[in-house]
Records
---
Amino acid sequence: MRIIKNSIFLLLFCSISAFAQENDFQTWYAVSLNKKIIKKTNLTVKTGLRLRENSSLYAKQFTDVKIKRKYNKRISYAVGYRYINRWDIALNISNQNRFYADVYYKNKFSKRFSYAVRNRWQTQGDLYGYKMTLRQKFSLNYNIRKTKLSPSIATEYFLTLEDGINKLRSNIAFGYPLAKKLDFELAYRIQHEFYVNNPETLFIFEGKLAYNL
């Protein structure tokens, strides 16, 4: 438990301290549908849109399908596929595929504090080639007494064999149930790039809606 705490704080510190040459403000939007298909197994279909250049131009649109299964009360695993449309600076569109596998672990520090670790192995690319990436995400969640508001903080690193850790992403989020089966989350995220010609720091607002069928 102490190792996990130290890792979360170290990654948060590194992501805040990192230096980049260019900045951009982006907004991300996502809507997902969740359905229990068999015991302990859920299907999630998600679509998203991302805007860049101070949220004035299209950056990415995707459709994601994921099957997640609960192994026990602490461990889950999932496999998924994402189809991605990307727009470059000249607004030319390219398509990519992403295949990924996840392993989740969650537990509690106390009655109100919980933590989670997600390990993701993904390969993403097109006909010209694919790139493997390991993504490890640490998150802390707090259960506020007498309210449905759920705050959380998280940090994630992206690791490749070629570059090592080439991206750090940290965020603070607030979730709230709008209805019995409808949840809303608002997040603010900072993302740093490394080992590219023009590394960016992205400042991102994200809104997500999730409906449980």
Note: Residues 141 and 152 are 4 Å apart (CA to CA).
---
Amino acid sequence: MDFTQRLQDLMQQVGVSSFKALSRTAGVSERQILRLRRFGVEQMRVDVLLKLSQALQVSLSELVATFSLFDVVRDNGIPTQELLQNIADLKREYDRSQLQLQQQRLVLLQDFQQSSLQLLESLLLQFPTAAQKARENPDLPAINIVPLVLKPLEKLLQQWGVEAIAPVGAELPYDPQMHQLMEGTAQPGETVKVRYTGYFQGDKLLYRAKVSPVMER
């Protein structure tokens, strides 16, 4: 039994022009769509069927009814009503698993926030007071406040495996892969000065360092 025409009819109703477009819209592989065309719902996962039903704007029950003929189901020894019940049970199980996944993500997010706040504790507690003192006494040297910001930040970056490309003020050979020119021009290998540092996390480049050309002395 080939279900291709039935699928194309549903696609036409929602303006999906090709199987590739359906794959993108539903977020399922083209292989899964081919399986639906050839075998109907009997060999499909419930999460895939849910995505296809949403993309085709039909209910899960309608999708199952459309892609499972009574004769085909009877030959396999599974009544249509039983198949629909199985799909409904799988959908409930899928919904439960999605809820559990969302709860796990929330717990992980809360753990991440808590650990980050612990690393920034000294900044959170001391910086507002230091900033108020600076407003009350404009002559207070800024150098006294800098460690309150830098130390917690450095500790946090170290914890996350984030490393600076180079310190601000460093002069080094220009590398367009790691450096972004703020002004002027420079050829690879020519000396530039770091104006704003960039960062790596492991082998991944997070931000290029912003640099300016160094004039020949």
Note: The beta strands are 162-164, 171-173, 179-181, 191-196, 199-201, 204-207, 209-213.
---
Amino acid sequence: MRINDDLTRPALVHAGRLDWVPSPAKGVDRRMLYRVGDEVARATSIVRYAPDSAFPAHVHTGGEEILVLEGTFQDEHGDYPAGSYFRNPPGTSHSPAAKDGCTIFVRLWQFRQGDAAQIVRQPGEGAPTPPRLGAKAARVLFADGAERVVIEDWQPGALVRVENIRGLELLVLSGSLSVDGDRMGPQGWLRLPAGHMLAASVGPQGAQVWMKDAPLQHPDVLPLPQ
């Protein structure tokens, strides 16, 4: 399966408008944004857990990065309410579930060789950083020189410009913004290759965004199994 697999071209998906696609686990459905592969895949998705649903225990051979969008995501290590962010590097494992249901944003098999940083940020955590023009607040969830992940609150009606030297990925968490006249609401996802500046017009309610500044695929990304 291949979805938005041309990393040399911009991609914009209104994920909130997509149908939910069942996963192999009962009660766990997906909206696929980017995918190369079948069930074992390099992928970016929105995943919904119905109440009392669970996914079988598994090892993250290629790494996993998650932002909880709604509800509370759970595993044997703890509870992660909406706004939680964590990275499970290659070799880690867990048994994910959601007693009351949840929705998460997840990136799979996009870690690079030697990336072993395991990070857990509860809602509101992260290092404050000076906001860019048009933003009122920003905090860093993760940064290691090869990539930088932030959550930013953008002001109503602002024009926000983001330089893009390495590659850029954005998810709208709340509010709205427009890019090239295309209005993005919650779960709107945008991916821009290096050199494509982001110019976003923020809606009247403002917007909160998750954003990753990194190569769209690291040169030393972990290879998918054959």
Note: The chain has two domains: 2-114, 127-213.
